[in-house]
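Lab notebook, bench 4. The sequencing result for the construct came back, and we need a structural model before the next group meeting so we can plan mutations. Quick request posted to the team channel:

Model the 3D structure of this chain.
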Amino acid sequence: MSGTTTAGRTGPTGARRPGTASAPWRNWAGNVSSRPVREESPASAEELAEVVRRAAEDGLRVKTVGTGHSFTAIAATDGVLVRPGLLTGIRRVDRESMTVTVESGTPLKRLNVALAREGLSLTNMGDIMEQTVAGAVSTGTHGTGRDSASIAAQIRGLELVTADGRLLTCSEKENPEIFAAARIGLGALGVITAITFAVEPVFLLTAREEPMSFDRVTAEFDALHAENEHFEFYWFPHTDNCNTKRNNRSAGPAAPLGRVGGWIEDELLSNGVFQLACSLGRAVPPVIPALAKVSSRALSARTYTDIPYKVFTSPRRVRFLEMEYALPREAAVPALRELKAMLERSPLKVSFPVEVRTAPADDIALSTASGRETVYIAVHLYKGTPHRGYFTAVERIMTAHGGRPHWGKIHTRDAAYLAGVYPRFAEFTALRDRLDPDRRFGNDHLRRVLGD
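Done. Here's the predicted structure in token form:
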């Protein structure tokens, strides 16, 4: 049923949409804010191109913001803030090429539900689905996988408005050098208006969640990675306890979580009770180790089978700050042991678990998995908790192993460091110089991480 449209889009109106005076903008975590000159909400790619051209006439920079789930200032602007809320929906489902083309402002949640309705699915995805598709791919959002990579690695084409207001279609055959870089473009090459993803017939995953000791997980990490299509685990600081999750394809039948049991574990314990524990820990830090011991034992072993997005993703309602580094996969266990030893000898009290995931190597210039098998180590702190001491100590460990910081999460690295850990860094910045010489899509954050 090639060409089926499952959700319409608003086409160009032919009228010039005036921007509105802008209130201050804040990200999801509340740690970044900016005050744009004006906001724009274009309803089509053509209207968005006009927004960019008009910003250039006014000498203003342009940034697009989705749901604000990045912890960095990557979307902050003192110029024109573009909200893509009217650029939503699926343009086309092509069952011959097994692709779906979706508007850039579509939340991943809506995309997943629409694909399931069509009997289709992405191959892999991250663990939350609130972000817009463009925001997720532009910052390198990923899940965990032995063979399947980030969301951006599943892109087969994209549409991009450049700094001069042109609308470019990019793929391996059309503007291939732009396509190669813009799949993870940090918003520095242009504004994405649509993305074409590879999809496959919907399938079932069996999730096996099981408590395991830190020593056992680290001793068996290579085997757990090799034996499972998707393996991840959480280690609870101040304890020797981990919670592991193995996701593998299943012939079925489906056996989803029960409504009551799922609510107790995913909402009551993982969100409600955890929120209370974090609030108490922030107010009285000395109780955190005791709370961690209780939290790490609260979730029991369970197995369930469901369609992919219901297995890969979970609700995350407790707000936090996050740092994540991508390391060569062989550095996983040494880095984790160094992290654990650092916390044991320090006065730091950490209420959030440390998350560990993997990815295969890919060929995207600024992908955190570019050219190497990768492990991701993510650390979190409850919103409002002082984070610099912990994050600085963690960053020191990660950079000693050649770590690459997640583009959407807190870090202190600059262009000089990043050029040393990304072999194709200069390729990306040269393309940026060609597409956006006046830095229409720049901001202070991009100046730090990409240079001027």
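The first strand starts at residue 20 and ends at 21.
Will bring this to the meeting.
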